[in-house]
Specification:
The protein has nine helices and 14 strands. With 281 residues, the chain is an alpha/beta fold. The protein has a domain of 150 residues: 3-Layer(aba) Sandwich (Cytidine Deaminase, domain 2), CATH 3.40.140.10. Strand 1 and strand 2 form a beta hairpin. Helix 8 runs parallel beside helix 9.
């Protein structure tokens, strides 16, 4: 049974006719992410976040969120048993267990990692906050990609968006290599959740600091916001393409971390907002 979609009956108007019809919607439900940490004598459970998401890949979503928020930085910090997680999430709540010797920064658990981007001062503070948890060494590389590869990425992603084909109401994040071969993709009603699921998938199978494959390209099915650039910088992604527009703070973040940011990638055209040297024109 697919818990990501649901069927509803609607009144449909078409060609001057009103009639009953079946429609398919993307499911949206809350997921409560909890972190269990501390030693055997002082075990604590902290409610880290509640996010509205499409059910599925919840373990990836949870650990991806914890990583991109800077709360954890290595898979070795966690006790991960996929069989356990696959059976314990029926209540839309998931517990992520830290190993006993792992120290957690309680300030980060309050999700004060970055502040609002409503003003220039806050925007600069937001970027500086990311820089305290990561640096530009992850994204400091000189590989390049042909424009012909970039242009075809949306079509390649559309072929993989199963839920979008049914609903039209879902976001996707996909990772490609520089030859345009799809490596992984994830879908969710929340664009940030789709990216957390994608990053979480790599985090769960990572064995060293280089989690995301070198010389890879991220494609976002919507716009490029600051939050998505923040998560990408944490994961060390060097080229980000978005079908929609970037925000001003997203562009500033891309420039600060040496990320090539492309927007409005559709219909055989795109705009390059930062570090154009990686695109072979």
């Amino acid at each position: 049974m697919n818990h990501s979609i649901t069927e509803v009956q609607i009144d449909k108007y078409k060609d001057d006719l009103l009639f009953k019809a079946d429609d398919i919607l993307a499911v949206e439900e809350p997921l409560e992410i909890k972190l269990v940490h501390g030693n055997a004598n002082n075990k604590q459970t902290t409610n880290v976040s509640i996010t509205m998401r499409t059910p599925g890949n919840d373990l990836e979503l949870a650990v991806g969120f914890l990583f991109t928020e800077g709360i954890i930085n290595d898979i070795k910090q966690l006790n991960i048993n996929p069989d356990f997680y696959s059976h314990q999430n029926s209540s839309n709540s998931i517990n992520i267990f830290c190993k006993e010797d792992v120290l957690i920064d309680h300030k980060l658990l309050q999700r004060n990692f970055y502040t609002t981007s409503a003003c220039g001062v806050c925007g600069k503070a937001s970027i500086d906050a990311i820089y305290t948890l990561t640096d530009d060494s992850k994204t400091n590389n000189n590989f390049s990609v042909s424009k012909d590869i970039i242009i075809q990425l949306p079509d390649l992603l559309n072929q993989q968006q199963d839920i979008f084909k049914h609903t039209g109401g879902i976001h996707a994040a996909a990772l490609f290599n520089k030859e345009g071969v799809l490596l992984e993709s994830r879908e969710d009603v929340g664009r940030h959740n789709a990216l957390d699921k994608l990053i979480g998938a790599y985090f769960l199978k990572s064995t060293d600091e280089q989690m995301i494959p070198n010389e890879s390209i991220l494609l976002l099915s919507g716009r490029a916001s600051f939050e998505l650039l923040q998560k990408s910088a944490m994961a060390g992604i060097s080229i980000i393409c978005a079908v929609g527009a970037p925000s001003s703070l997203a562009v500033e973040t891309a420039k600060r971390f040496g990320i090539t940011l492309i927007g409005f990638l559709r219909n055989n055209r795109f705009n390059i907002y930062s570090n154009p040297q990686r695109i072979q024109l």
